[in-house]
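Researcher: I've got a protein sequence and the SMILES for coproporphyrin III. Could you write out the 3D structure of the bound complex as structure tokens? I'd like something to compare against our soaking experiments later this week.
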Amino acid sequence: MEPYDAILLVSFGGPEAPDEVMPFLRRVTAGRGIPDERLAEVGEHYYHFGGRSPINDQNRALLVALRAELDARGEDVPVLWGNRNSAPFITDALRDGYAAGLRRVVAVTTSAYSSYSSCRQYRENLAAAVAELAEEGIEVAVDKIGPYAPRPGFGAANLERLLESMRALDGAPDEEIALLFVTHSIPTAMDETSGPGDGDGDLYQRQHLALASSLTEESNRRLGRDLTGELVFCSRSGPPSQPWLEPDVNDRIEELARDGVRTVVLAPIGFVSDHMEVVYDLDTEAAETAEKVGVRLVRVPTVGTLPTFVRDLVDAVEERAAEARGEAVPDFPGRMPAVCAPGCCPNLRAARPALCGRD
Ligand SMILES: CC1=C(CCC(=O)O)c2cc3nc(cc4[nH]c(cc5[nH]c(cc1n2)c(C)c5CCC(=O)O)c(CCC(=O)O)c4C)C(CCC(=O)O)=C3C
Ligand SMILES: [Fe+2]
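Model: Sure. Here is the predicted complex with coproporphyrin III in place.
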């Protein structure tokens, strides 16, 4: 994988025991003005599952799948793993890698889209880790693959999952089915400023809408249906006075039920594994809403370790390595650069150093 001697999987992290829940939530929300009631409420989501988020186990499974795919390609490059909010932390992963002789790594995040929360914040975490290690006399270089939501392989993996679920819908007529694509809500100010700043903004939302519309079109074509997909949001936090992306998935399910919809297909294209935002916010909360209004909820699995997804991530890494060697890489609509533009997806609270960009 010239010039890289390791791949670094970078993720959000999550608690694995009840006593890790509050320290995790304090780390996630440090200095972000999330009201205490919201923190306590989110704590309950985790306690409801024994204080253990599924996210770390899902990343362990992804590491195994990436290893197998790399081995199949004859690539012996090691794969490291570091989180933003729980052990193993990014800094420790890089320090261990350095001790094992690794000097230049390529990062892959478990976030597919462009926005401060899903891209730049990870770039800031990488910069902080590299700076901390520099103080210890450790020099590591980190590159990153660009946001991969627009990649055809990511679309293909999501389509596979969607078709699997849609095929189980038997003879339900189109008028009684709603196809909802769902992602994490973010503050509208964060959405408006998402992207490299050379277009119209709203790149977070536009990337989701582009994927949602191609998945709708393709699944209609394959299944002979005529559904109209739409994008909805989950997991809103922050004070009520601050506008976040809407509609909320629960509100939309209630409205659809009033309009005569009997089955809601919920495809969480904003997430790559069935972590807490999926098993709580969708499978628990949205499922309760659906039950209350008498709607059948069909939740599409996230891409997880689907081979189509794992192969695409490895392709993205191989393309990043080729780019670093000065070779050409395939283009496709919406392709994001691996090196972000200056000011791309800005931090609206504080200017912090970030890696993998031109600023
Ligand atoms: C865009 C986005 C993704 C998708 C991209 C990605 O995957 O990174 C994502 C993922 C996740 N978000 C997660 C958990 C949380 N997110 C929070 C809060 C927030 N998320 C935000 C955005 C996003 N979040 C934002 C703008 C906030 C407000 C505060 C802030 O600006 O930071 C809070 C605080 C409490 C609350 O919910 O208010 C928690 C606990 C978990 C872990 C799940 C698990 O444990 O299994 C995952 C994967
Ligand atoms: Fe979040």
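Model: The chain has a mean pLDDT of 96. The pocket of coproporphyrin III (ligand 1) is lined by residues 12, 14, 25, 28-29, 32, 34, 38, 42, 53, 55, 110-111, 115, 117-118, 184, 186, 235, 237-238, 270, 275-277 (CB under 6 Å).
Researcher: Great, I'll pass this along to the crystallography team.
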